[in-house]
Amino acid sequence: MRDGATSGALLDWYDIHARDMPWRVSPADRAAGVRPDPYRVWLSEVMLQQTTVAAVRDYFARFTALWPTVGDLAAAEDGRVMAEWAGLGYYARARNLLKCARAVVRDHGGVFPDTREALMSLPGIGPYTASAISAIAFDRAETVVDGNVERVMARLHDVHTPLPAAKPELTALAALHTPEARPGDYAQAVMDLGATICTPRSPACGICPWRDPCAARAEGTAPELPKKTPKKQKPVRHGVVFIGRSRDGAWLMERRPESGLLGGTLGWPGTAWVAVSEEVPEAIPPAEAEWRLLPAEALHTFTHFHLRLSIMVAEGLPASGGETASATLRPGAQGWVPRGDFRPSDMPTVMRKAFDLARSAMDNDA
DNA sequence: CAAGCGTGGGT
DNA sequence: TACCCAAGCTT
């Protein structure tokens, strides 16, 4: 069953109000037959997973400049891709991005498959992203369900079941509205609606193209939907990192193991991170030196815990074993990264915070 | 299948 | 300040 009236009203709104994004083909261009590049659609959708449009823009521009095609990306060095992703978060996305690019080259001749099922089998592409690529890049009538769509459907149909339990019901409702005509524009239109009109707080119901059919607006319940099950509070963990510099200005760094928190990213050697109620593990320095403890800690919040990171610094160390380009550092390995190759922006934010504090302390010595 | 997995911006 | 939230996927 399809609902042409509601989708039509939304598409009319989208023709006028579609937001301009670097990876998007405007409704007018799309009507003229222009199709988006599946590579750019895929890259943008992966970057946009749990991430705001504002945060993605610059990363998308850098990635497409460095690697214009999926073949270019597939041929890139792992460490280069991890460095470019640094700061965007959820680093499994970057690891899966490379796996996916290489699978597209190896198994699909460098051409993205155009069905939801085939897309779903690729690393890092789940139900949402498979539908989004299929609809947006290939104009297939797949139903796209992200956080925006869940919120819009919960309000349009006044669903009070809390998420995530309500997800199947909201997905079914979303499918009823998905049109056969212009499914790609429609998918982007619902998400634009959720991002600009049907917002989590203070929805602008007065100017909504769906104000008439919206059940929650009629009931006055829109601002309180969707209901969500309460989340647990975050515990605090504590750890120590060592930031060491050689006589030649090289930095002693490590690449974290492939799996787990910050997997595959560049950072500083240190202890495990444990609950404050536990004993911080013996801080065994990664090199012989006179390490001194900084008076300030790096504070950072991850998805499921707060971190307080103590920082030890030392300078003038001998770079025993020679220097190593950061991008070639293997997961689990440590090495001296030469001064000219070191960029703080290659590290995840928590490690950059620790470095900023260390640099201030070192500069103060000079 | 509940939990693990980042970060920056808004209120 | 301390939440809440964002175009989710994997295990």
TrEMBL record:
Pfam families: EndIII_4Fe-2S (PF10576), HHH (PF00633), HhH-GPD (PF00730), NUDIX_4 (PF14815). GO terms for molecular function: 4 iron, 4 sulfur cluster binding; 8-oxo-7,8-dihydroguanine DNA N-glycosylase activity; adenine/guanine mispair binding; metal ion binding; oxidized purine DNA binding; purine-specific mismatch base pair DNA N-glycosylase activity. Adenine glycosylase active on G-A mispairs. MutY also corrects error-prone DNA synthesis past GO lesions which are due to the oxidatively damaged form of guanine: 7,8-dihydro-8-oxoguanine (8-oxo-dGTP). GO terms for biological process: base-excision repair; mismatch repair. Binds 1 [4Fe-4S] cluster. Keywords: 4Fe-4S, DNA damage, DNA repair, Glycosidase, Hydrolase, Iron, Iron-sulfur, Metal-binding. Its EC number is 3.2.2.31. Its cofactor is [4Fe-4S] cluster. PANTHER family: ADENINE DNA GLYCOSYLASE. Belongs to the Nth/MutY family. CDD domains: ENDO3c, NUDIX_DNA_Glycosylase_C-MutY. It catalyses: Hydrolyzes free adenine bases from 7,8-dihydro-8-oxoguanine:adenine mismatched double-stranded DNA, leaving an apurinic site. This is Adenine DNA glycosylase. The gene is mutY. PROSITE patterns: ENDONUCLEASE_III_1, ENDONUCLEASE_III_2. Residues 47-196 form the HhH-GPD domain. It is an enzyme of class 3 (hydrolase).
